[in-house]
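During data preparation, a discrete fold description was generated, as reproduced here:
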Amino acid sequence: MEYGFIARALQVMIASPGDVDQKRQSVREEIVNFNGMHSEKEKIVLLPVDWETHSYPETGADAQTILNKQIVSKCDLLVGIFGTKVGTKTENALSGTIEEINEHINAGKPAMIYFSTELVPRNIDQDQLKKLENFKKELQLNKGEFKALYKDFNSTDDFRNKFRNDLYRMVVLSEYFNESKISNLSEKEIIEELKSNKGEKEEKEISEEAKELIAEAYRTDSEIHNFSTKEGQIIQAGEKGFTPVNPRNDAYYVEAINELESKGYIRSLNSKRQVFKLTREGYKYGDENFVN
């Protein structure tokens, strides 16, 4: 009897000052959600890492240098979150969080950085706020060139939604982690991996009519309806109707429904096959192709 599955473990560093605890918790929860939804299929497991849970007492250097050695240097991906301050200054940077980000980026590893645009309390530390704005500007080296790309968020929910989409794109779709994956394989395994990727890509290719149907169902989170009437075939997703137009057009969209069903992207909700709902694979296809 076989148990479990083989997967790559990627360590995700959560770096932030102490004023964004709720967002830090959101990162941990979204990592758990990612593992539950994608780990078995993508063969990737994400491990959240931060100084609170992964550091241990050590002497011989300043605290931040020790943390960099114990934690930051071993992480594959860093998530940096800022609210209204940068944090406590270190010997080498404006704050420990900024030093961690710099260490990670300088090592050639990817970082996902987020800044809050939520309303600032009147009694906020203006010096901290100014330092935060300066750091944000430092991420832009020259006009149009960035040391790191970042995103703004205006609420915890907004942050969570953006991070969820970004995490999937970074870990599953980005060239960085896909190249890292292949670099550890033998020549024979690389050939098999490339063949597999080509086969998966071809398998996911669908007709333009099928793309239109699944895109509308995904974006509106609605069902696809397929009815025959005296006026002709009625195929609709959300508020958008795709038929009837003419027999040729209608036939294409009927076939598109069959195509989506055969790919496992939709499933019928009744025996007459008049109502269809996106499956997990359908939502995943939407995440990969229709998320802005």
The mean pLDDT is 85. DSSP finds eleven helices and twelve strands in the chain. The CA atoms of residues 256 and 262 lie 10 Å apart. The longest helix spans residues 21-42.
